[in-house]
Amino acid sequence: MRLFLLTALTMLAFAANSVLNRWAVEPGHIGAVEFAAIRLMSGAVMLAALVLWQRGGIAWPEMQGRLAGVLGLSAYLLGFSLAYRGLDAGTGALVLFGMVQVTMFAGALAGREGVPPRRWAGAALALAGLALIAAPGAVALAPLALMAVAGVGWGLYSLAGRGARDPLAATAWNFVLALPFVLPFGLAGLAAPDARGLALAVVSGAVTSGLGYALWYAVLPGLGAARAAVAQLTVPVIAALGGAVLLAEPPGLRFWLAAVLVLGGVALASLPYRALTSR
After folding, report:
1. What pLDDT shows up at residue 222?
2. In this structure, are residues 125 and 268 in contact, taking their beta carbons and an 8 Å threshold?
3. Which SS3 state, helix, strand or coil, does residue 47 take?
4. Which helix (H) or strand (E) holds 253?
5. DSSP E strands: which ranges in the chain?
6. Separation in Å, CA 46 to CA 51, 77, 114, 204, 261
7. Residues 6+ away with beta carbon under 8 Å from 254
8. What's the confidence (pLDDT) of residue 59?
9. pLDDT of residue 231
10. Residue 113 DSSP code
11. How many CB atoms neighbour CB 145 within 10 A?
12. Has residue 38 got a pLDDT over 80?
């Protein structure tokens, strides 16, 4: 029960990033790039503090794959915030989730990993769901493209971080090293945030990102690959429900049809075969 509750709390934190970003940026409480910069700074401070508290110090990170991870994280943060000027919370989370999985799939192909047929089928289903969202008249293409960039960025970040011996410390370093890439955009922004926008950005960085990632790495060993994949399938749905309740953005039929395709495809591609066939 404790593991279930902690996992549910982590998924709520991940979904909350979409709701908080949309809540802050769309009404104009803060500019999109300013939100990304403050989120990154707050997350970096929180993650560094956690590593110092747990380890008593921060060693210089391994540099293999570091630049790719930092650039991927920067692209994710900026694309994510900019996209939420034109996407509702649920749609943005679903597009992000789908593009991350497509990028991970492409990474497997590029690395010449063995790709079983069901993973091909899962990727095709996810792409069909994304195509349904991108159909004419569904959403504006510019925000959709920006969220796709964010998804590719997070996918590259995830690929670069595979095999990290200390994921929490690696994440802290990536947040710190991404500051020179993201902060100039925030400083060049023209919109001065109000108190609500600033608070939402800090919460997104320090709590739902920093503490959320720390909690995820703490519960991940107890979950295993299959349950971790299933848990993450809930994030776009939670974001959609949060957007409906807090932002008056109820998802329509197109969203739910696309969600079935994207999340079903991800489940087919990522879950172990035994998890799909066990009763």
Report:
1. 82
2. yes
3. helix
4. helix 253-270
5. none
6. 9, 17, 38, 11, 36
7. 132, 133, 135, 138
8. 67
9. 79
10. -
11. 15
12. yes
Backbone angles phi, psi at 164, to 5 degrees: -60, 130
Please give the single-letter amino acid code of residue 267: A
Pairwise pLDDT comparison (75 vs 102), residue with the higher score: 75
Residue 5 exposed, middle or buried by CB count within 10 Å (0-12, 13-18, 19+) = exposed
Separation CA 104–CA 186 (nearest Å): 29
Q: What share of the chain is helix, strand, coil (3-state, %, to 5)?
A: 80, 0, 20
pLDDT band at 226 (very low <50, low <70, confident <90, very high): low
Q: In angstroms, rounded to a whole number, what is the distance separating the alpha carbons of residues 139 and 128?
A: 16
User: What percent of the chain clears pLDDT 70, i.e. is strictly above it?
Assistant: 89
Residues in the chain: 279
Query: What is residue 45's three-state secondary structure?
Result: helix
Could you tell me the two tokens for 190? 């023209």
- Whether the per-residue pLDDT at 192 is higher than 50: the answer is yes
212-232 vs 2-25: helix axis angle to the nearest 10?
Answer: 100
Residue 106: exposed, middle, or buried by beta-carbon count in 10 A (0-12, 13-18, 19+)? middle
Helix (H) or strand (E) run with residue 154 in it: helix 141-161
Judged by DSSP in three states, 2 sits in: helix
Kindly tell me the burial class for residue 58, based on how many C-beta atoms sit within 10 Å of its own C-beta (0-12, 13-18, 19 or more).
Answer: middle
| Cα–Cα nearest to 4, from 275, 264, 230, 180 | 230
* Rounded distance between C-alpha atoms, residue 70 and residue 175, angstroms: 7
pLDDT at residue 190 greater than cutoff 80? no
